[in-house]
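SEVERITY: medium
COMPONENT: batch folding queue
REPORTER: lab tech (J.R.)

DESCRIPTION
The queue accepted two submissions in a row. Attaching both inputs and their returned structure tokens so the on-call engineer can compare them side by side.

ATTACHMENT 1
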Amino acid sequence: MPRRQPTSHLSATDYLITFLAGAFILCIFSTSQKLLIGVPLMPKGYIAPLLYGGTVAIILRRMMARAKTSEHLRKLSERRYGQLFDHSHELIIALSGDGNIRYTNPACQSVLGFKDNELTEINIEKLIDANSLLQWKNDVQRLHQQGYLPPLRTTLVGKQAQKINLEGNLYFEHPDSHSHDYRAVFQDVSLRKRAQADLESSEKKLSTIFHNSSAAVVTVDQQGHFIKVNEAFCQMIGYPEDEVLNKNWQDLCHPEDWPKLEHLREKALHSNDSRFEIELRLNHRADRPVWGLLSSSWVSDSEGTPKYTVAIIQNISDGKLANERIKKLSLYDPLTGLPNRSRLRRAIEEAFVNANCIGLITIDMDKFKEINDSLGPTAGDQLLQEISARLRTIETADSLLARTGGDKFALLLSPLDSPAILSEYARKILDILATPLIFAGKQVYTSASIGIVFNCDENTNAESMLMHADSAMYSAKERGGNRFQYFSAAMNQQIQERLNLEEQLSRALDNGELELFYQPQINLDNMTVCGVEALLRWNHPERGLLLPAQFISIAEDCGLIVRIDTWGMEKACRQNKRWQQQGLPAITMSVNISSLHFRRPDLYQQVRTILERTALEPCHLKLELTESSVMDDVEKAERTMHQLRKLGVSLAIDDFGTGYSSLNHLKHFPINQLKIDRSFICDLTENPEDQSITNAIIALGHSLGLRIIAEGVETVEQLTYLQQNSCHEIQGFIFSPAIAAHDCPAFIQTFHSMQPTAS
């Protein structure tokens, strides 16, 4: 059955109640009205006494009220739709505009005697009895003419030539769109005979399902006392049922989370929408927290007075731990455990808010490459760990030590009254590093070049501080190293070079100096080229070919990035269309979108215009977004992504794992793919932490139905590991670096005969 895309966010309560109420739906059909999607229910109060405590009837009325419009049908989530579809006793057949069967539900397959794959793509007219075929055709024609049909009757022929008399409805799936797909919902008349028996056993079935459900389910009165709990909830918190029933929410809820839960309960009690959802910690009997995603709703009596809440709790402890691990890895260096450059940048910004003056010391090890080459990478990592341990000895409560990359470290001091203190710290660092280290029976001598910045200007940003400190550090290195240097105005040459590069970049686009290269992306399922990523290069007239890392930050700072993004997107789309016209297989073109560009309100219109201008089908374009760009303003980002997905383009989260994505938000983003950052791949086969986070991202992607692609794959060992752990796609030097447009056709056409060449 084709995968159905989720289109809305429905509470888990609705899912459970819908599932529990499935057994009663046929009972309701014993009345003169039919319970069909889009057709009004019978008078209020008729079925309430038949169902458990009135709970199911009330929630069904609310669900059906929301389902009256076709607009809401498009927004029904995959989970809720799947529950109704799979557990309904009605025969549901989804049809394309020409009558071909797209999929059927289990009830339909059971009654007709077919398996799912036997019905798919069969035209419905082949299943209709000859005596009913003409009337069916007339009904379908009237549906297209009028948009709506009253209940109809027809006869289908099953696999064993048995005739099944049916009553039901035809309706369009998306009446407000141009789609002519429609759906048939039928009731086997013979099922009515069993309705009374189902009704009589409903209470028993409901209770059985409640207590045997794998999901934790509880009912709680207005005062927060537990009325009913099932075995799954007891297992989640470690208490037997009799003990839980003597407790209330406050007893089992973490003290920090209880006020939030109580506030939501009260708010939902006095609002039109009685539902609420919260992530909270429950107190396990073993005195440990259990993270749960609680979805709840107030249930009212027949007079509309709220009586109690029904809550479903999903155990999300594993996901929380994985999320915290991702968050930690995004802010801390996995080798040394020190804060990374991102965490340091944030600390500098916070320091300017809380202090008048701050000091920054950057430390770059002298000749570390030579030491690393002579000792080997493993010993080099151990050396960095030893260096970080020594540097930690000078940390204080007012300082922050970070590893900013490679063999570079930084020490932030805040607050700071005098720059002279920085000199004392610099001398301590040089003395600490001067003591030789012992590796493999050899003495290893280290030294460092140190740059110092003292700043009392709150308008200075973190990047400027780091840039000035690096300028001073490079000055110390040029003077022979093993020394420290304060930043001064004379060191502005590097800053001036940056400004010159900014001015040259503003003309580069007009002068045709920018160019796109394309790195192939390989589908590991069938080892074919499934796409390419467009990567920017600058043919600088004096400095030669420059990579994005050398100028993209400049483009972002001076505001050129949006113009460059737009140019690159149109050029990439036009190139993809040209390849298709040359007879190449259709592949996906991945284009990076900067966070600044993503936040612009006209992004959707720009993408649409480019696709129209280049005549490229939207399904062949994928936009890669950074985690930070989608998390800056979650609501706005979600709206923008839904617009782009509605247009038909694919969306991927680039460099996943280096930022911080809330799992609660991530599950609602209409993305197609997660891209594992190369920093987790480079040491994948040697570093257990990289393996853990890579496996966590792959598992997360699979659970959310997302494609996973790993970038920076360079060795056969990395490739094998990713294949064994169900990664979908890869890109990297293992197969090809980024190549010019004119080289891509030959690569794509001959790839099937290629073998990995890197090791």
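ATTACHMENT 2
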Amino acid sequence: MKRSFKAILLLSAAFFFAGCTTGLETEINDLAKRVTDLETYCAELNTNISTLQTLANALKSQNYISGVSDYKEDGVKVGYQINFSDGTYVVIYNGKDGADGKDGDTPVIGIAEGEDGNLYWTVTYSGGTTTFLTDSLGNKILAVGIDGKDGKDGEKGDQGDTGDTGATGSDGITPQLKIDDGYWYVSVDAGQTWTEVGQATGDAGDAVFESVDTSDPDYVVFTLVDGTSFSVPTESAFTSISDKVEEMNEQITAVSKLVDSIFTNSVFVSSITFNIDGSDTLSYNVTFSDGTAIVLNKGVNGKDASVPEVTASKYEDGVYYWQVTVGDSTSWMLDGEGNMIQAAASDGNDGITPVVGVEDSAGIYYWTMQYGDGNAEWVLDPEGGKVKASSEDGTSFFANVDVSSGEYAIFTMADSSVVKIPLYSAYEALMGAIDTINTNINSMSELAEALEERTYIKETEAIIYSDGDTVGYYISLSNGKSLYLYNGLDAAAPVMGVAQDTDGIYYWTVRYGTSRVNWVYDDEGNKVKAVAEDGEDGSTPAISVSKEEDGLYYWVVVNGSDTTYVEDSEGNKVTASAVKGEDGTSFFSSVTSDSDYLTIVLADSTTTFRIPIYKEFALTDWTYGENEMGTEYTLTTTGETTSYALNFTLSCSYITDPEIQYYTTSGIESVSVGEISYDSNLSTFTGTINVTFNVTPLIGTQKLLLFFGDGKGKVVMRSVYFN
């Protein structure tokens, strides 16, 4: 992790040499005291230098401050004790305020960042310039150790060869100060060699640390006497920030899942549960139809709203891209080439899920964002400054989740953008509605053909639910096919139908709500025939749905390879729904039947189907005048009448010419069958049997046996007696 440090002046020792006394003994005593004070101060300086290095190393090793307390010697506060998360501690000495010294040169040991980004020791003399401390070869002295570089992997063998050993890292070195013969010396090789850095003939200088501020729960701020300061994170703050990073990345992954679901026809929201504390919703548990689950934290507004908000929003090209909001400023996330970061797969490009992190700079953690395999970049505020990481909650990624529509889970993000994901239950209902609609369409196609051909209805049975409601009809046709006519949903669904145009041909129609009935056209602009005509086959379109980039489903009519949107009365695409509504209509406004016909009136009122009821072979009427004759009948004759007309009606859907045979006794001169009238719609045959006698009055009783047959083995016999 790269760290960026401003030069921090950490230690300063001002020694002033002056003082004229009138007595040699006083001068000797004062000099001895000053030497003792300087030696003590020198020891404290070395302690503070070591402490500084410990603080710097703490940033690198993620060893954070767990507490700060007063450090006392002989009951007197002389500094601070800094406790770390690994159980260790260091001491910072306040130092003493000395009088103005004479001729003393105060060396100030500090740390600064080199061009390579590593931290090195510096030295500054009072009134002088700051330079890096160097070793005997002129190399800068590291203040904090650096990691060795990874070795390169060896070429893969049968089981993989071991890679080369990486370069060894360099340890940081702690400078040491000492006073010898009235001069300051510094060592950068653990005391093996010493370099003179200035005269030490003055009193002990000002304290190194001006203050240690623990008022910020996230950082301990160390301020030096020269006004410079630096910060070290507290353990609790780092833990909170780490938890916040994990939470944010979980939320970003959740956003990615939601956006991906928009473009996936097989992933829907199965269930949403709410985690509630009192009257406040804290989070939403969202389970998808593919078995995966996410948690959406609603969160609360933090004190300074310093947590960046990450959202996915649809651009004008219809593609979802990532956005980041800092404060009141929202901007698109850009990669290293300035391109917007795609949030969901589209047009052959995969979506990328950004990863939130933190890195420290000058001892303070700032938010970062990484995209794919790219490097982590600072999250910047509107002024271009890095955004400080905070353990305080910022605005949640999600403002609300609404499932009240019963069809979609509507996720409103913090930036007010909306993502809609179909509820699985609603999707199942929608697919069920589509199946019902297309079943009705196929049935209508068969009914249209039945009008053109000699096809009859053999059986009709109402489909009744357990609550007693009739939801449709089962219909068996004489050609062996079975049809189902469902009443449909009282929902905002399109209604398909067939209608005869002025050319006498049946074509498909579609209507939605109160819009006018429209013909269904193919891609060449021709009306789609519902039945075969003039050597051309009819076709059966289907109602389906098309999922668009807004995540919504729209009704479409599919005819072969052609797809046409269903439009309302204003020409707008119609969203698909299986939820009941006032504007919806059934496919069929009525289905009635009698002994001869099944009558179906379509909901669009353009067509009424009257399909003949299938009739088995039967003698439905057998009369003489107004008298029903029954199976056996005795007809009383008179002397004046020589012939009698017996009327019959036969019903049969599968023949066009019945067979009639008879047997008579000797008194009957002739039996003849008059012209038979055939009604193809009713499948009936109507005619007269004429019976003539050779003499009147009849002598005895004469008998006529009639046999009506369908030519397929079924015969109906009737007996008539004349006397």
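NOTES FROM REPORTER
The two ends are 125 Å apart (CA to CA).
No errors were logged for either attachment.
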